[in-house]
Amino acid sequence: MHLGTRKVLDRSFAGLGIFSVVLMSAALLVLLGPIFVRGLGAFVFRATVEHHRFILEHFGRGDRRQVQGRIAAARQSREPLYDMIARHEDELWQSFRAIADRHKAEAAVYEMIESREPDLPRALRAARYSLTEDGRHGRDALDALEQRWEVFEELREKVRVLLGPLPGEQFALLRKQYGQTRWGRAQVKLHDLLYDYDYDYSDPNQMGRKVYVPRVEQFEGTAVEPLFAYAEDNLHAMLLPRWTFYWRFLFDESFDAHFFGGIWPAVLGTLYLTVGTMLIAGPTGIIAAAYLAEYARQTWRVSLIRTCISTLAGVPSIVFGLFGLAFFVNTLHVSDSRSVLAGALTLAVLVLPTVIRASEEAIRAVPQTYKEAALSLGATKWRTTFTVVLPAALPGVLTSIIISMGRAAGETAPIIFTAAVSLGKPLKLWQTLSQPTPALPWNIYNLATEHEAVDEIRHVQYGMVLTLIVMVLALNVTAIILRARISRKLRG
Amino acid sequence: MAMRISDVVRSRDMRPADEAADLQAGPPIVEADDFSVFYGSTEAVCGVTLGIPAGKVTAVIGPSGCGKSTFLRAINRMNDLIPSCRTTGKLMLEGQDLYEPGLDVVTLRRTVGMVFQKPNPFPKSVFDNVAYGPRIHGSHSRQELSEVVEGSLRRAALWEEVKDRLSDNALSLSGGQQQRLCIARALAVDPDIVLMDEPASALDPRSTARIEDLIGELRGHYTIIIVTHNMQQAARVSDMTAFLYEGRLVECGPTARLFTKPREQETEDYITGRFG
Ligand SMILES: Nc1ncnc2c1ncn2[C@@H]1O[C@H](COP(=O)(O)OP(=O)(O)OP(=O)(O)O)[C@@H](O)[C@H]1O
Ligand SMILES: [Mg+2]
Question: Quick one: which of B42, B34, B37, B50 has its CA closest to B87?
């Protein structure tokens, strides 16, 4: 070939190589960048006083005096708002009284108005047939008032979501006991408070368009009319957001289906599953690989086994999941139902082909001369395998195992039926034999598809994704470092 | 060539010429009787009958592919690793048939050590390399191992060079050092016989010289059987020489006699470099 041509070819080849590396890095960056940034949002965010109140009340963490001081300050800023709400409720009761007066209600109605028992809508309904004069008009007036109540109740609900229970209210559900814990969500909720929405169907060729209507229009001339402006202007003072590094997100238990707290049960579950998988698949895989590489004769049966192993490596993971359920849980009954053990066994079957194949390659790559040396010194075959061949193959074997660990950590399908639940406490070691566990990949899927209030807790999902990716990356980096160190040691 | 080799032979501090009789005196330690080795249907060693004297250095020479390695590896049954390999006839070690069923290969290989053509230390430390054999044969006390390692390294004339690097990886030694390490490793299990398959062919002249000196020092303590392509080397280091040609044993005798007065025409042709 002409020298010039060769040079050009050389150069274009190098260019192509650099180009593809750059492309890959860019793709990685585009992929990982947003994941990283959003995932970080689970750890570092502007936490409102509600977050700090929760942490104080449930974990006893934080500077008690300081947090309580902030709670008091926030409460003070909320006072005018609660005041408006209370006054508007009064207004509604007064309207009720006016209707009662106008239509000559029975004494029982006045009793209800005096005692404000039961609550307004029920009282209104109870009053329907207690008006003695011009019942129909009276009932229309009651209906109108009930509608005003409903709009008001919707407003109160928006305020509860934003700031937590109104003064004097108590709720059993944890998520109702606190307002918004994250400033970003608080702003979304403020918007919900300020604007009601409706659908605009004026164009018959299009789907209804969502239009936002200022909620204040529903309350013109009432005591809560200024509430909206007040809320908009004083949101900061009412929630006192603060940049917070919530690193315990990783180690805190989850509360109320991930509404509060952290992701530790899922992280721990993933660790259990991964380590368990490797404890099962590592030794079995290495022994199988050593057998195939060192002991098995080259018969058709062995080739068949090899083919099967290669085929298994390509089987979709959901199939392994179903197999795990059918075999480990339903047939062998390793546990009554789903458990970490059953999941680890299933994942082990999933990664075993990879471990076996890669380890076999690594073992085959060990120079024959090492074996000859050991045998010539009088070592038995298994001794040679364990003291010379496997140590020399260790970098390859370890790499395959750690990469399989990354795979096991990230797989969802195999654990759906065998190990995973969406909610749970962190397990003790011995519980892994019988108990199912939350696990990051499953919880990510669960949050993305099935959770009742997924929009409220996106940050948890992103935090889980980030954690899982970091775990897998860390495993792979460990593999690379270990491999480098061992091969340096072997090379001398 | 012939002259130079006989020079070499003469220049060695040889005992009187009637040494030949002396060599044959004691009972041979390794004895082949019409011994053949086959790879599948090809016969690599054909009907060799030969006695190898104890405590001497015996060189096996012959052109490439004549079956030297095959014969050597038959003595510690390394050929067992090759599935297609089988043997006929008898090969005896101290009167014991090596191919008798039920023979303990592990004990045999303990008695018959081997040094390979290319240095093949394990990717372990110098110490662990030498200690490998003693360890698999059940000695584990650090004290005992240190003594064996030092003794073996001294005998392999490597101690002075590596005594401060015992925990370094063996692969960081030079090629010549690695080969002496392999010799030390073979000596550490205290064999009776050491087989060497072209132990110096991958080394530079200085390392080769060291290995040859070493063989000289080991003479008498061990029975050494060495395969070599280098006839000067055979002449320098060995007491007995066996010449193989196309699997047959052409001639076998005291080195001095074989190189100066070969009885067979083929031997003469080979050592004078007319073929091979
Ligand atoms: N594993 C094997 N399978 C089949 N034939 C073999 C095998 N090893 C050696 N042979 C054949 O046996 C014959 C003798 O081989 P051997 O290695 O003993 O020769 P050698 O004398 O050692 O040669 P060299 O001096 O080149 O090392 C050769 O023809 C070779 O092709
Ligand atoms: Mg050879």
Answer: B37
What is the number of the ligand 1 atom nearest to the C-alpha of B66?
21
Q: Which ligand is nearest to the CA of B78?
A: 1
Give contacts of A373 with chain B, Cβ < 8 Å: 116, 120-122, 182, 185
Residues 265-304 of A with CB under 8 A from B: 297
The residue-averaged pLDDT of A32-45 equals 91
Distance CA B249, CA B265 (A): 13
Q: Which of B92, B29, B79 is nearest to B57 (CA)?
A: B29
* pLDDT mean across residues, chain B: 86
Task: Scan for tokens 């969502």, then name that residue.
Answer: A210
The pLDDT value recorded for residue B25 is: 53
Query: What pLDDT does A54 receive?
Result: 93
Token pair 């895989």 is at which residue? A285
Predicted confidence at residue B1, as pLDDT, reads: 44
What are the pLDDT digits (tens) for A146-174? 999 999 999 999 999 999 999 988 999 88
B-chain residue closest to A369, CA distance:
B120
Q: Is the pLDDT of residue A279 over 90?
A: yes
- The backbone torsions φ and ψ at residue A195, rounded to the nearest 5 degrees and listed phi first, read -125, 135
Residue that is written with structure tokens 């015992």 in the block: B166
Please enumerate in sequence order all residues whose Cβ is within 8 A of that of B213, keeping only pairs 6 or more positions apart, or say none. Answer: B157
State whether A489 and B182 contact (CB < 8 Å): no
Distance B201 CA to ligand 2 centre (A): 11
Cα distance between residue A23 and residue A25, in whole Å: 5
- The interface predicted TM-score (ipTM) is 0.87
Question: Domains of chain A, with CATH numbers?
Answer: 49-244 (no CATH), 260-491 (1.10.3720.10)
Q: Whose CA is nearest to atom 20 of ligand 1?
A: B65
> What pairs with residue A356 in β-bridges?
none
At A378-392, the pLDDT tens digits run 898 889 999 999 999
User: What was the pLDDT predicted at B8?
Assistant: 59
* pLDDT, position B83: 85
Enumerate residues 6+ apart whose C-beta is below 8 A from A484.
none
Q: Of B246, B163, B164, B160, which is closest to residue B210 (Cα–Cα)?
A: B160
Cβ neighbours of B136 (radius 10 Å): 19
- What does the alpha-carbon distance between residue A309 and residue A335 come to, in Å, rounded to a whole number? 27
- CA angle at residue A352 from A348 to A357, to 5 degrees? 165
Would you say A273 and A442 are in contact if contact means Cβ atoms under 8 Å apart? no
> Rounded CA gap, A164 and B83, in Å?
81
Q: Is the pLDDT of residue B12 over 60?
A: no
Cβ neighbourhood burial of A373 (10 Å; 0-12, 13-18, 19+): buried
Q: What is the structure's pLDDT at B7?
A: 64
- Non-local (6+) Cβ contacts of A6 within 8 A are none
Instruction: Give yes or no for A485 touching B (CB within 8 A).
Output: no
Q: Is B274 on the interface with A (CB under 8 A)?
A: no
Of B109, B173, B186, the CB nearest to A375: B109
Q: What is the DSSP string of A354-401?
A: HHHHHHHHHHHTS-HHHHHHHHHTT--HHHHIIIIIHHHHHHHHHHHH
B74 within ligand 1 shell (Cβ under 6 A): no
